Fold:
Amino acid sequence: MRVIYEKEIDAGSIVISPRPVWKCRACPMYGKNPSCPPHAPSWMEAREWISHFSRALLIKFEIDYENFEREKREVIRYLLKKEESGPYAMALFPGNCNLCDECEFTKSGKCVMPTKVRPSINAIGVEISKLVKIDFGESVLYGLVLID
Structure:
């Protein structure tokens, strides 16, 4: 995993809609992960919540898809570390949480790291394509950290 860039953006430029949440319904992790719908806040709640931030960090990571799970885990840990920048800072994960090698939540509905799980960017309705030009030929993940 390599950070390509970190840029501060106006939190008001973050577009929230139901479109990404509906896309989540086609995902095999739908309903099976604590960072994904229906366990994540609704897009309407997220719109209200994000409106109370003025700034966010948009972070682009280059990853090796051959080691996707490990690389994504590093991305998530990086985002959680960035979250330490302020008392109300909050990371948003790129896709479902995969902090654990084997997810207990998928088996029992109980997360072993509930204080570390954050919502997926898509799960709360963030239209990431309104913030960046998506190039499906790149091996990248995007993360957001709401900072102020």
Notes: The beta strands are 2-10, 55-62, 90-92, 140-146. The radius of gyration is 14 Å. The helical segments are 19-24, 43-50, 68-82, 104-108.
